[in-house]
Design a protein that fits this description.
This protein has 457 residues and is mainly alpha-helical. The protein folds into 2 domains: 173 residues, no CATH class; 273 residues, no CATH class. Helices cover 69% and strands 0% of the residues. It contains 19 helices and no strands. Helix 1 runs antiparallel to helix 2. The protein is globular.
Length: 457
Protein backbone atom coordinates (compact mmCIF):
# COMPACT_ATOMS: atom_id res chain seq x y z
CA UNK A 1 0.00 0.00 0.00
CA UNK A 2 1.17 3.49 -0.78
CA UNK A 3 1.79 6.04 1.95
CA UNK A 4 -0.33 8.37 -0.17
CA UNK A 5 -3.39 6.11 -0.20
CA UNK A 6 -6.62 5.93 1.78
CA UNK A 7 -6.01 2.33 2.86
CA UNK A 8 -2.72 3.33 4.49
CA UNK A 9 -3.68 6.69 5.95
CA UNK A 10 -7.18 5.79 7.14
CA UNK A 11 -6.82 2.10 8.00
CA UNK A 12 -3.33 0.62 8.33
CA UNK A 13 -1.69 3.58 10.09
CA UNK A 14 -4.40 4.15 12.76
CA UNK A 15 -4.62 0.40 13.44
CA UNK A 16 -0.83 0.12 13.67
CA UNK A 17 -0.58 3.05 16.07
CA UNK A 18 -3.32 1.56 18.24
CA UNK A 19 -1.67 -1.88 18.38
CA UNK A 20 1.79 -0.43 18.98
CA UNK A 21 0.54 2.01 21.62
CA UNK A 22 -1.37 -0.74 23.42
CA UNK A 23 1.68 -3.00 23.43
CA UNK A 24 3.98 -0.21 24.59
CA UNK A 25 1.68 0.63 27.49
CA UNK A 26 0.38 -2.76 28.64
CA UNK A 27 2.94 -5.28 27.35
CA UNK A 28 6.28 -3.55 26.55
CA UNK A 29 7.96 -6.87 25.77
CA UNK A 30 5.57 -7.28 22.82
CA UNK A 31 6.23 -3.86 21.28
CA UNK A 32 9.00 -4.98 18.94
CA UNK A 33 7.27 -8.23 17.86
CA UNK A 34 4.16 -6.17 17.08
CA UNK A 35 6.23 -3.83 14.91
CA UNK A 36 7.78 -6.81 13.11
CA UNK A 37 4.34 -8.29 12.37
CA UNK A 38 3.05 -4.92 11.18
CA UNK A 39 6.10 -4.50 8.95
CA UNK A 40 5.60 -7.91 7.38
CA UNK A 41 1.90 -7.17 6.88
CA UNK A 42 2.79 -3.89 5.16
CA UNK A 43 5.34 -5.59 2.91
CA UNK A 44 3.01 -8.48 2.12
CA UNK A 45 0.24 -6.11 1.07
CA UNK A 46 2.19 -5.38 -2.12
CA UNK A 47 2.66 -9.00 -3.08
CA UNK A 48 2.41 -11.77 -0.51
CA UNK A 49 4.54 -14.05 -2.72
CA UNK A 50 7.65 -12.07 -1.76
CA UNK A 51 7.10 -12.43 1.99
CA UNK A 52 9.01 -15.75 2.09
CA UNK A 53 11.93 -14.05 0.31
CA UNK A 54 12.07 -11.29 2.93
CA UNK A 55 11.68 -13.75 5.81
CA UNK A 56 14.30 -16.13 4.38
CA UNK A 57 16.68 -13.25 3.76
CA UNK A 58 16.37 -12.11 7.37
CA UNK A 59 16.57 -15.60 8.84
CA UNK A 60 19.60 -16.78 6.87
CA UNK A 61 21.60 -13.61 7.40
CA UNK A 62 20.84 -13.68 11.12
CA UNK A 63 21.90 -17.34 11.36
CA UNK A 64 25.15 -16.54 9.58
CA UNK A 65 25.75 -13.68 12.01
CA UNK A 66 25.12 -16.11 14.88
CA UNK A 67 27.57 -18.61 13.40
CA UNK A 68 30.18 -15.88 12.98
CA UNK A 69 29.88 -14.93 16.66
CA UNK A 70 30.69 -18.53 17.57
CA UNK A 71 33.40 -19.27 15.00
CA UNK A 72 34.82 -15.84 14.04
CA UNK A 73 35.18 -17.25 10.51
CA UNK A 74 35.34 -14.25 8.19
CA UNK A 75 34.62 -16.50 5.20
CA UNK A 76 31.06 -16.87 6.47
CA UNK A 77 30.50 -13.12 6.15
CA UNK A 78 32.08 -13.05 2.69
CA UNK A 79 29.85 -15.88 1.51
CA UNK A 80 26.79 -14.19 2.99
CA UNK A 81 27.55 -10.90 1.22
CA UNK A 82 28.12 -12.74 -2.07
CA UNK A 83 24.84 -14.62 -1.61
CA UNK A 84 22.93 -11.39 -0.91
CA UNK A 85 24.37 -9.77 -4.02
CA UNK A 86 23.63 -12.91 -6.06
CA UNK A 87 19.96 -12.83 -5.07
CA UNK A 88 19.80 -9.13 -5.94
CA UNK A 89 21.49 -9.82 -9.28
CA UNK A 90 19.09 -12.68 -10.06
CA UNK A 91 15.97 -10.58 -9.60
CA UNK A 92 17.24 -7.22 -10.79
CA UNK A 93 20.10 -7.75 -13.23
CA UNK A 94 19.80 -11.21 -14.83
CA UNK A 95 18.02 -9.97 -17.95
CA UNK A 96 20.28 -6.91 -18.14
CA UNK A 97 23.40 -9.04 -18.34
CA UNK A 98 21.59 -11.47 -20.65
CA UNK A 99 20.92 -8.57 -23.02
CA UNK A 100 24.60 -7.60 -22.90
CA UNK A 101 25.58 -11.17 -23.63
CA UNK A 102 23.11 -11.25 -26.50
CA UNK A 103 25.14 -8.55 -28.24
CA UNK A 104 27.85 -11.18 -28.85
CA UNK A 105 27.00 -13.11 -32.04
CA UNK A 106 26.24 -16.78 -31.43
CA UNK A 107 26.06 -16.50 -27.65
CA UNK A 108 22.72 -17.65 -26.18
CA UNK A 109 20.98 -15.11 -23.98
CA UNK A 110 18.23 -16.76 -21.88
CA UNK A 111 15.71 -14.52 -20.13
CA UNK A 112 13.95 -14.92 -16.80
CA UNK A 113 10.52 -13.38 -16.30
CA UNK A 114 10.88 -12.52 -12.61
CA UNK A 115 8.98 -9.75 -10.87
CA UNK A 116 11.29 -7.39 -8.97
CA UNK A 117 10.57 -7.59 -5.22
CA UNK A 118 9.96 -4.11 -3.87
CA UNK A 119 12.75 -2.81 -1.66
CA UNK A 120 15.17 -5.64 -2.46
CA UNK A 121 18.05 -3.20 -3.10
CA UNK A 122 17.45 -1.43 0.19
CA UNK A 123 17.14 -4.47 2.46
CA UNK A 124 20.10 -6.12 0.69
CA UNK A 125 22.25 -3.09 1.49
CA UNK A 126 21.08 -3.16 5.11
CA UNK A 127 22.28 -6.76 5.38
CA UNK A 128 25.63 -5.82 3.82
CA UNK A 129 26.17 -2.88 6.17
CA UNK A 130 25.55 -4.98 9.25
CA UNK A 131 27.56 -7.99 8.08
CA UNK A 132 30.51 -5.86 7.01
CA UNK A 133 30.61 -4.06 10.35
CA UNK A 134 30.22 -7.40 12.11
CA UNK A 135 33.33 -8.74 10.38
CA UNK A 136 35.20 -5.55 11.27
CA UNK A 137 34.38 -6.12 14.92
CA UNK A 138 32.22 -3.00 15.11
CA UNK A 139 28.73 -4.53 15.33
CA UNK A 140 27.38 -6.52 18.29
CA UNK A 141 25.04 -9.50 18.30
CA UNK A 142 21.29 -8.85 18.04
CA UNK A 143 18.42 -11.21 18.63
CA UNK A 144 16.22 -12.27 15.73
CA UNK A 145 13.35 -9.90 16.53
CA UNK A 146 15.57 -6.82 16.61
CA UNK A 147 17.43 -7.86 13.49
CA UNK A 148 14.17 -8.52 11.65
CA UNK A 149 12.87 -5.09 12.64
CA UNK A 150 16.12 -3.46 11.52
CA UNK A 151 15.70 -4.97 8.06
CA UNK A 152 11.91 -4.83 7.62
CA UNK A 153 10.79 -1.71 9.56
CA UNK A 154 7.92 -0.64 7.33
CA UNK A 155 8.53 3.15 7.04
CA UNK A 156 11.89 2.56 5.34
CA UNK A 157 11.89 -0.99 3.94
CA UNK A 158 10.77 -0.06 0.42
CA UNK A 159 12.79 3.05 -0.45
CA UNK A 160 15.00 3.95 2.47
CA UNK A 161 16.60 5.87 3.93
CA UNK A 162 19.51 3.45 4.28
CA UNK A 163 19.88 3.11 8.04
CA UNK A 164 23.01 1.84 9.73
CA UNK A 165 22.51 -0.50 12.66
CA UNK A 166 24.22 1.95 15.04
CA UNK A 167 21.68 4.63 14.14
CA UNK A 168 18.61 2.64 15.11
CA UNK A 169 19.25 -0.50 17.18
CA UNK A 170 19.68 1.29 20.50
CA UNK A 171 16.31 2.95 19.99
CA UNK A 172 14.51 -0.39 19.99
CA UNK A 173 15.19 -0.74 23.71
CA UNK A 174 13.59 2.58 24.66
CA UNK A 175 10.09 3.20 25.98
CA UNK A 176 9.27 5.88 23.37
CA UNK A 177 5.99 7.04 24.88
CA UNK A 178 7.55 7.36 28.32
CA UNK A 179 10.06 9.97 27.17
CA UNK A 180 9.50 13.56 28.40
CA UNK A 181 9.47 14.74 24.79
CA UNK A 182 7.15 11.97 23.55
CA UNK A 183 4.27 14.31 22.69
CA UNK A 184 6.57 16.73 20.87
CA UNK A 185 8.12 13.87 18.91
CA UNK A 186 4.70 12.54 17.96
CA UNK A 187 3.57 15.99 16.86
CA UNK A 188 6.67 16.56 14.75
CA UNK A 189 6.16 13.11 13.24
CA UNK A 190 2.66 14.11 12.15
CA UNK A 191 4.05 17.34 10.70
CA UNK A 192 6.74 15.51 8.72
CA UNK A 193 4.18 13.02 7.44
CA UNK A 194 1.86 15.83 6.34
CA UNK A 195 4.62 17.88 4.70
CA UNK A 196 5.92 14.79 2.93
CA UNK A 197 2.45 14.02 1.62
CA UNK A 198 2.11 17.62 0.44
CA UNK A 199 5.45 17.45 -1.39
CA UNK A 200 4.45 14.24 -3.13
CA UNK A 201 0.76 14.86 -3.85
CA UNK A 202 0.58 18.64 -4.31
CA UNK A 203 3.98 19.35 -5.94
CA UNK A 204 5.61 16.17 -7.25
CA UNK A 205 2.63 14.49 -8.92
CA UNK A 206 1.50 17.57 -10.89
CA UNK A 207 5.04 17.82 -12.28
CA UNK A 208 4.66 14.27 -13.60
CA UNK A 209 1.92 15.62 -15.88
CA UNK A 210 4.54 17.96 -17.37
CA UNK A 211 7.36 15.43 -17.68
CA UNK A 212 5.69 12.13 -18.63
CA UNK A 213 4.21 13.19 -22.01
CA UNK A 214 7.54 14.64 -23.13
CA UNK A 215 9.57 11.55 -22.27
CA UNK A 216 6.84 9.30 -23.72
CA UNK A 217 7.00 11.25 -26.99
CA UNK A 218 10.79 10.91 -27.03
CA UNK A 219 10.50 7.16 -26.41
CA UNK A 220 8.11 6.83 -29.36
CA UNK A 221 10.61 8.48 -31.70
CA UNK A 222 8.97 11.88 -32.06
CA UNK A 223 11.00 15.06 -32.42
CA UNK A 224 11.03 17.12 -29.24
CA UNK A 225 10.87 20.89 -29.46
CA UNK A 226 12.98 23.28 -27.42
CA UNK A 227 10.01 24.22 -25.24
CA UNK A 228 8.98 20.61 -24.68
CA UNK A 229 12.53 19.47 -23.88
CA UNK A 230 13.15 22.13 -21.26
CA UNK A 231 9.68 21.65 -19.80
CA UNK A 232 10.18 17.89 -19.47
CA UNK A 233 13.74 18.16 -18.15
CA UNK A 234 12.98 20.78 -15.51
CA UNK A 235 9.73 19.08 -14.53
CA UNK A 236 11.46 15.77 -13.92
CA UNK A 237 14.35 17.49 -12.13
CA UNK A 238 11.94 18.83 -9.53
CA UNK A 239 9.53 15.89 -9.64
CA UNK A 240 12.15 13.35 -8.58
CA UNK A 241 13.27 15.61 -5.75
CA UNK A 242 9.79 16.22 -4.34
CA UNK A 243 8.77 12.61 -4.93
CA UNK A 244 11.76 11.04 -3.22
CA UNK A 245 12.35 13.64 -0.52
CA UNK A 246 8.59 13.60 0.12
CA UNK A 247 8.78 9.83 0.65
CA UNK A 248 11.72 10.32 3.00
CA UNK A 249 9.86 12.96 5.02
CA UNK A 250 6.93 10.56 5.33
CA UNK A 251 9.23 7.74 6.38
CA UNK A 252 10.91 9.90 9.01
CA UNK A 253 7.55 11.18 10.24
CA UNK A 254 6.03 7.70 10.43
CA UNK A 255 9.06 6.39 12.29
CA UNK A 256 8.73 9.22 14.83
CA UNK A 257 5.11 8.23 15.46
CA UNK A 258 6.46 4.85 16.58
CA UNK A 259 9.28 6.37 18.62
CA UNK A 260 12.12 5.84 16.12
CA UNK A 261 14.40 8.57 14.74
CA UNK A 262 15.67 7.83 11.22
CA UNK A 263 18.52 9.76 9.55
CA UNK A 264 17.88 12.61 7.14
CA UNK A 265 18.25 11.82 3.45
CA UNK A 266 18.04 15.23 1.77
CA UNK A 267 19.32 18.71 2.60
CA UNK A 268 18.27 21.13 -0.15
CA UNK A 269 20.41 19.48 -2.89
CA UNK A 270 19.46 22.02 -5.55
CA UNK A 271 21.23 24.73 -3.57
CA UNK A 272 24.54 22.92 -4.02
CA UNK A 273 27.51 24.99 -5.17
CA UNK A 274 29.49 22.00 -6.53
CA UNK A 275 28.92 18.42 -7.60
CA UNK A 276 30.57 17.18 -4.38
CA UNK A 277 28.18 19.38 -2.42
CA UNK A 278 25.27 17.89 -4.36
CA UNK A 279 26.20 14.36 -3.35
CA UNK A 280 26.54 15.45 0.27
CA UNK A 281 22.94 16.68 0.10
CA UNK A 282 21.18 14.23 -2.26
CA UNK A 283 20.20 10.73 -1.02
CA UNK A 284 22.66 11.31 1.80
CA UNK A 285 22.39 7.82 3.29
CA UNK A 286 23.20 6.20 -0.08
CA UNK A 287 26.11 8.60 -0.57
CA UNK A 288 27.54 7.60 2.81
CA UNK A 289 27.03 3.92 2.00
CA UNK A 290 28.86 4.24 -1.32
CA UNK A 291 31.66 6.20 0.35
CA UNK A 292 32.20 3.93 3.34
CA UNK A 293 31.52 0.50 1.84
CA UNK A 294 32.67 0.92 -1.77
CA UNK A 295 34.78 4.03 -2.43
CA UNK A 296 37.04 3.49 0.60
CA UNK A 297 37.20 -0.26 -0.10
CA UNK A 298 38.44 0.56 -3.62
CA UNK A 299 41.24 2.68 -2.16
CA UNK A 300 39.60 6.08 -1.78
CA UNK A 301 42.08 8.93 -1.45
CA UNK A 302 44.66 6.97 0.54
CA UNK A 303 46.72 5.48 -2.30
CA UNK A 304 47.48 8.31 -4.67
CA UNK A 305 45.63 10.27 -7.34
CA UNK A 306 45.27 7.52 -10.00
CA UNK A 307 43.70 5.16 -7.45
CA UNK A 308 41.37 7.92 -6.24
CA UNK A 309 40.24 8.69 -9.78
CA UNK A 310 39.52 5.01 -10.39
CA UNK A 311 37.66 4.69 -7.10
CA UNK A 312 35.46 7.71 -7.91
CA UNK A 313 34.70 6.44 -11.39
CA UNK A 314 33.93 2.86 -10.33
CA UNK A 315 31.86 3.93 -7.31
CA UNK A 316 29.59 6.22 -9.31
CA UNK A 317 29.26 3.78 -12.22
CA UNK A 318 28.19 1.03 -9.81
CA UNK A 319 25.95 3.53 -8.03
CA UNK A 320 24.26 4.20 -11.36
CA UNK A 321 23.83 0.48 -12.00
CA UNK A 322 22.31 0.09 -8.53
CA UNK A 323 19.58 2.55 -9.53
CA UNK A 324 18.43 0.48 -12.48
CA UNK A 325 19.29 -2.44 -14.74
CA UNK A 326 19.96 -0.39 -17.84
CA UNK A 327 22.86 1.23 -19.63
CA UNK A 328 21.24 4.65 -19.30
CA UNK A 329 21.55 4.33 -15.51
CA UNK A 330 25.19 3.30 -15.86
CA UNK A 331 25.78 6.31 -18.12
CA UNK A 332 24.10 8.55 -15.53
CA UNK A 333 26.46 7.22 -12.85
CA UNK A 334 29.48 7.51 -15.14
CA UNK A 335 28.60 11.14 -15.94
CA UNK A 336 28.50 11.97 -12.22
CA UNK A 337 31.75 10.08 -11.68
CA UNK A 338 33.48 12.07 -14.42
CA UNK A 339 32.11 15.31 -12.98
CA UNK A 340 33.48 14.41 -9.55
CA UNK A 341 36.86 13.65 -11.15
CA UNK A 342 36.90 17.02 -12.96
CA UNK A 343 35.98 18.73 -9.68
CA UNK A 344 38.82 16.85 -7.95
CA UNK A 345 41.39 18.15 -10.46
CA UNK A 346 39.87 21.63 -10.25
CA UNK A 347 40.34 21.67 -6.47
CA UNK A 348 43.88 20.30 -6.68
CA UNK A 349 44.75 23.01 -9.20
CA UNK A 350 43.52 25.61 -6.73
CA UNK A 351 41.34 27.37 -9.26
CA UNK A 352 38.55 29.57 -7.88
CA UNK A 353 34.86 29.00 -8.54
CA UNK A 354 32.47 31.89 -7.86
CA UNK A 355 29.47 30.67 -5.87
CA UNK A 356 26.80 31.79 -8.38
CA UNK A 357 28.65 30.14 -11.26
CA UNK A 358 29.22 26.99 -9.18
CA UNK A 359 25.50 26.78 -8.40
CA UNK A 360 24.47 27.32 -12.03
CA UNK A 361 26.92 24.76 -13.43
CA UNK A 362 25.94 22.20 -10.80
CA UNK A 363 22.20 22.64 -11.28
CA UNK A 364 22.37 22.53 -15.09
CA UNK A 365 24.65 19.48 -15.04
CA UNK A 366 22.41 17.60 -12.61
CA UNK A 367 19.30 18.48 -14.62
CA UNK A 368 20.89 17.32 -17.87
CA UNK A 369 21.94 14.06 -16.25
CA UNK A 370 18.37 13.44 -15.06
CA UNK A 371 17.46 13.05 -18.74
CA UNK A 372 19.54 9.86 -18.85
CA UNK A 373 17.98 8.71 -15.59
CA UNK A 374 14.41 9.22 -16.84
CA UNK A 375 14.70 8.26 -20.52
CA UNK A 376 13.86 4.67 -21.43
CA UNK A 377 16.72 4.42 -23.93
CA UNK A 378 19.70 6.32 -25.30
CA UNK A 379 17.63 7.14 -28.38
CA UNK A 380 14.96 8.77 -26.22
CA UNK A 381 17.59 10.66 -24.23
CA UNK A 382 19.20 11.87 -27.46
CA UNK A 383 15.83 13.15 -28.67
CA UNK A 384 15.51 15.20 -25.47
CA UNK A 385 19.07 16.52 -25.76
CA UNK A 386 18.45 17.53 -29.39
CA UNK A 387 15.35 19.36 -28.25
CA UNK A 388 17.27 21.16 -25.50
CA UNK A 389 19.50 22.83 -28.11
CA UNK A 390 16.66 23.56 -30.50
CA UNK A 391 17.22 20.88 -33.16
CA UNK A 392 13.57 19.83 -32.91
CA UNK A 393 12.16 23.30 -33.45
CA UNK A 394 11.21 25.97 -30.95
CA UNK A 395 7.66 24.91 -30.04
CA UNK A 396 5.09 26.77 -27.96
CA UNK A 397 3.05 26.43 -24.78
CA UNK A 398 5.68 26.10 -22.06
CA UNK A 399 3.89 24.93 -18.89
CA UNK A 400 5.24 26.82 -15.90
CA UNK A 401 2.54 27.03 -13.22
CA UNK A 402 3.65 23.91 -11.34
CA UNK A 403 7.33 24.55 -12.03
CA UNK A 404 7.55 27.98 -10.38
CA UNK A 405 6.43 26.96 -6.87
CA UNK A 406 8.46 23.75 -7.14
CA UNK A 407 11.62 25.67 -7.99
CA UNK A 408 10.95 28.20 -5.23
CA UNK A 409 10.51 25.52 -2.57
CA UNK A 410 13.46 23.44 -3.77
CA UNK A 411 15.97 26.26 -4.18
CA UNK A 412 14.83 29.03 -1.82
CA UNK A 413 12.39 27.62 0.72
CA UNK A 414 13.28 25.70 3.89
CA UNK A 415 13.38 21.92 3.91
CA UNK A 416 10.54 20.08 5.60
CA UNK A 417 12.96 18.85 8.29
CA UNK A 418 14.12 22.38 9.10
CA UNK A 419 10.58 23.75 9.03
CA UNK A 420 9.28 21.06 11.38
CA UNK A 421 11.98 21.84 13.92
CA UNK A 422 11.55 25.61 13.67
CA UNK A 423 7.79 25.83 14.04
CA UNK A 424 6.65 26.12 17.67
CA UNK A 425 3.79 23.99 19.03
CA UNK A 426 0.61 26.05 18.62
CA UNK A 427 -3.09 25.53 18.08
CA UNK A 428 -3.13 27.65 14.92
CA UNK A 429 -0.44 25.40 13.47
CA UNK A 430 -2.45 22.28 14.30
CA UNK A 431 -5.49 23.79 12.56
CA UNK A 432 -3.45 24.67 9.45
CA UNK A 433 -1.92 21.19 9.31
CA UNK A 434 -5.37 19.66 9.68
CA UNK A 435 -6.65 21.74 6.77
CA UNK A 436 -3.59 20.81 4.69
CA UNK A 437 -4.20 17.12 5.39
CA UNK A 438 -7.86 17.47 4.32
CA UNK A 439 -6.74 19.10 1.05
CA UNK A 440 -4.27 16.27 0.48
CA UNK A 441 -6.93 13.62 1.11
CA UNK A 442 -9.31 15.34 -1.30
CA UNK A 443 -6.53 15.49 -3.89
CA UNK A 444 -5.77 11.79 -3.39
CA UNK A 445 -9.45 11.03 -3.92
CA UNK A 446 -9.63 13.05 -7.15
CA UNK A 447 -6.46 12.02 -8.97
CA UNK A 448 -4.58 8.94 -9.99
CA UNK A 449 -2.16 7.91 -7.27
CA UNK A 450 1.39 7.79 -8.56
CA UNK A 451 3.77 5.27 -7.07
CA UNK A 452 7.02 6.63 -5.69
CA UNK A 453 9.76 6.81 -8.31
CA UNK A 454 12.32 5.02 -6.14
CA UNK A 455 10.06 1.98 -5.64
CA UNK A 456 11.47 0.60 -8.92
CA UNK A 457 14.95 0.44 -7.41
Amino acid sequence: MLFNSFVFLLAFLPLSLALHGGAERYAPAWRLPVLVVLSFAFYGWWDWRFLPLLALSIGLNWLIAEAFHKTKAGALISLAIIANLAVLALFKYFNFFADLAGMIPGLPAPKLELALPLGISFFTFHHIMYLTDLRRGQAPRFDLVRYALYIAFFPQVLAGPLVRWREIMHQFDERPYQRPDAAERFGRGLMLLTFGLAKKVLIGDPLAEYANPVFAAAASGKAISLVEAWQGTLAFTFQIYFDFSGYTDMALGLALLFGIVLPQNFEAPYRSLSIQDFWRRWHMTLSRFLRDYLYIALGGSRHGLPRQVWALFATMALGGLWHGAGLTFVAWGVAHGLALIVALFWRRAGWPMPAPLGWLLTFVFVALCWVLFRATSFEAALAIYKGLIGLGGIGTGFKWRALVPAAAFAIIGPTAWALVHRLPPARWLAVLLGLLLVIILLKIGEDANYEFIYFQF
